[in-house]
Amino acid sequence: MPHVPAPTRFADETDRKSGRRISRMFDRIAPTYDMLNHLLSANTDVRWRKQAAAMLALDGTERLLDLCCGTGDLSVAMKDGGAGEVVGTDFAVEMVRLARKKAGDRIEFGVADTTDLPFEDASFDVATVGFGVRNLEDLDGGFREACRVLRPGGRFLVLEFSRPPNAVFRAVYHTYFMIVLPMIGNLVSGGGGDNAYTYLPRSVMAFPGPHALGERLKQAGFSSVDITPLTGGIACIHIATK
Description:
Strand content: 15-25%
Number of helices: 8
CATH architecture: 3-Layer(aba) Sandwich
Radius of gyration: 17 Å
Number of strands: 7
Mean pLDDT: 88
Distance between the termini: 18 Å
Strand order of the largest sheet: 3-2-1-4-5-7-6
CATH topology: Rossmann fold
Low-confidence stretches: 1-9, 11-18
Largest sheet: 7 strands, mixed
Shape: globular
């Protein structure tokens, strides 16, 4: 595969154009973010990331961009799953610092706005995002940017929470998600004015369902979208092809 130039620009702490309130919220909860994710999901989030990497059938030749990378768990899963070069970006500085510490020199991380990426057109073979697109102020703009930086035939994997279709399971899940999770999450993370773990379930409830999200991906320039529900529809994997 031909060499692709490094990013033309990574943002610094003063260069984040959008989502400043949300980025500050994630900066604040960064120290407890991984622990709470694994605790509150009973480690199901780890299995979902491994499944996402397996579904891409990576062979070591791909240049992969992990958007909204947070502390780097999906970036690491993709590297462990066979990706070649991996680059991760996020708009929360503290998250990126933790990602760098976690991955060492295996993965390049930088601070960047997903709706205004510092990469040339057709720079990557694969793009991924795990539990991050809900935080974009401009969802469609983020999808268009992902499409822009992918080569023709490139794939974009979106791993995101959803709402279970089964009414009984959905009722039980919503009770946990809307009441128990915020209580534990805000208690352990320190809560504060941002109420990060109250924001989380509300953002999921306001987010488009799987098929509506698939249509948004097509409108952003992707030609096809495959949808795989996970754990009774708690989450979904979308794989869109440019």
